[in-house]
Amino acid sequence: MSLTRKLSALTAGAVALALALAGCGGSDDQSGGSLEEVNFGYIADYNGTSLLAIADDQKLWQKHGLKANTKVFTNGPLQIQALGTGDLDFGYIGPGAFWLPASGQAKVVAINTLGNADRVIARSGTSSIDQLRGKTVGVPEGTSGDMILTLALKKAGMTKADVKVVNMDASTIVSAFASKKIDAAGFWYPAIATIKKQVPNLTELAKNSDFESQVSFPTAFVAGNDVVSGEKAKTEKTIAVLRDAMAYRSANMDKSIELTAEMLSVPVDQVKADAGNVKVLSVDELDAKTKDGTVDKWLNGMADYFVEAGKLKSKVDPKTYYTGELFTTAAAK
């Protein structure tokens, strides 16, 4: 079965459940004026949450005439599915899900950070990727965990056919690793830190920086195709919120960590450790890298990987799915 068909089968119910159970937050209009509502998905880590936490604390939604209804998800593909059904207007994805907008299922409206949180982890005694032959490896399919596993196997001269891959969501991987139901996983921090509390001697066999000469690992904010094409004002306002929050984050890293911890109801030290695996990009850097083609280079590098991994049929021009001009011109709004 193709990955796309698997995702459709696995996520149809999960999206509904996530929307029903998701923690919701947002901004109330203190002045009593009318605010346009925007439904925004995120992942509960520093990459996926920090800008939303800042926007709420600094009242950036109200500043730009919006009221945000935020919903937490466990991964990017679920949010792409929700964008397609209209349950979300905007969402957040890690690098492993970029093939979905590249295949036309959403638009990337803002690059966020460069990530270094992904790992291939294994039980104590496994010291190399080739020792995973025939072993059971859990991975959230279509995510950055899937991406790091595929890259690591290739570097070792292997493919997924050489291991027993089991598709699992993030919470299942944590419990499955602790209960010894899987031997290894393609996964990410901060969830790996949770596993380490129960399995302190696990080994890290591969990480993002092992492949930085081949591919970068950007994270991004995405929007539904219909939102970008049919709701230009809402899109521009939302990008303006993200830009303001980016500027605040760059200037106030410690505070951004505190606000993220508060929004997620987790210890500050946990978020600080998570943020240590993130390269934060300022608005000025993102504008410059968008205009000079650096972002396109990142996206083309990932597209090469996705084509080779069978997730894309062919490489497409980043301009078909990254609305870079919309992002940079927001500075003049």
Automatic annotation (TrEMBL):
GO molecular function terms listed in the Swiss-Prot or TrEMBL record: ATPase-coupled transmembrane transporter activity
InterPro entries documented for this protein: ABC_SsuA_sub-bd, SsuA/THI5
Pfam families, per the entry: NMT1
Source domain of life: Bacteria
Keywords for this protein: Signal, Transport
Signal sequence coordinates: 1-22
Main localization category: periplasm
CC annotations in GO: membrane; periplasmic space
Domain SsuA/THI5-like span(s) in chain numbering: 54-248
Location of the protein in the cell: Periplasm
NCBIfam families: SsuA_fam
Family: Belongs to the bacterial solute-binding protein SsuA/TauA family.
Protein name as annotated: Aliphatic sulfonate ABC transporter substrate-binding protein
Organism (species): Kribbella sp. HUAS MG21
